[in-house]
Design goal:
single chain, alpha/beta, Rossmann fold, six-stranded parallel sheet, 11 helices, 42% helix, binds alpha-L-arabinofuranose
Length: 320
Amino acid sequence: MRLTRRKIMGAAMAASIVASAPAFAAKPLTIGFSQVGAESEWRTANTASIKDAARKAGVNLKFADAQQRQENQVKAIRSFIAQRVDVIAFSPVVESGWDTVLREAKAAKIPVILSDRAVKVSDPSLYVTFIGSDFVEEGRRAARWLVEHAKKNPNRSYNIVELQGTVGSAPALDRKAGFAEVIAGNPKFKIIRSQTGDFTRAKGKEVMEAFLKSEGKNINVLYAHNDDMAIGAIQAIEEAGLKPGKDILVVSIDGVRGAFEAMLQGKLNVTVECNPLIGPQLIQLAQQVKAGKPVPKRVTVNEGVFPAEVAAKEFPNRKY
Ligand code: AHR
């Protein structure tokens, strides 16, 4: 067979097409993620975990910070729908008010994953799966520590002030409920004041100052729904001339470095762990969902309780 000049050119072109095959490789997964904000040490670690996991998995992550506002999250989700991302994931600032926008995502056939916080929706098929902590159990664990601690002083009664998280958010509602469930019917424990500190140090300090002004030495326990508010409140307690961790027991949730540092200084008594490092699992779930693989409706993470007595030993192992 004679090879004409045209045939040789054709073969060369075909070879060059094969060589540039990566141009036809599978498109990377695109995830639109709407984060609550940057309100706490926990949140910073959560954001870093998600970005890092996405980068390592070669995922194209479109990240939007909602600055603690639901309307910003709704806007971000609508923009992800318009951009036709493969999967939408978000950490809902509050629990309710999501039906409409999630229906829009469903109509556009874009699966939704809830990260860290749950939602209350009329139709559970509006999201595919949830990954995060059991916040009710965290509240129970905080109260159980207090009940155990109180056994050392059987005649003492406990006047508790509570710093709640963001109003309407799943962790604030659930941590309040879990704690209340454990102390219910026990006359030794009384929540004398309860107000939101919005999960921030500044607000935690401000609200604790107000509690101290109105209740003074009547307070002997602070229960904070997160470590950042506890750390802010510790400052307020010290400025009021009292000793956090001694005059006022400090019980909080998250297990961030700042809480361990406070425990090492004897200013915080216990932190209940809430693990923010869920990025790798979130990305894996998104990949499975995109591939049409079945995923569980709820994925929860294993967590511990760290009282001040174990802080020195545990501190070097902390990853956030
Ligand atoms: O949703 C998790 C909570 O949100 C964390 O406990 C808190 O620190 C954060 O802001």
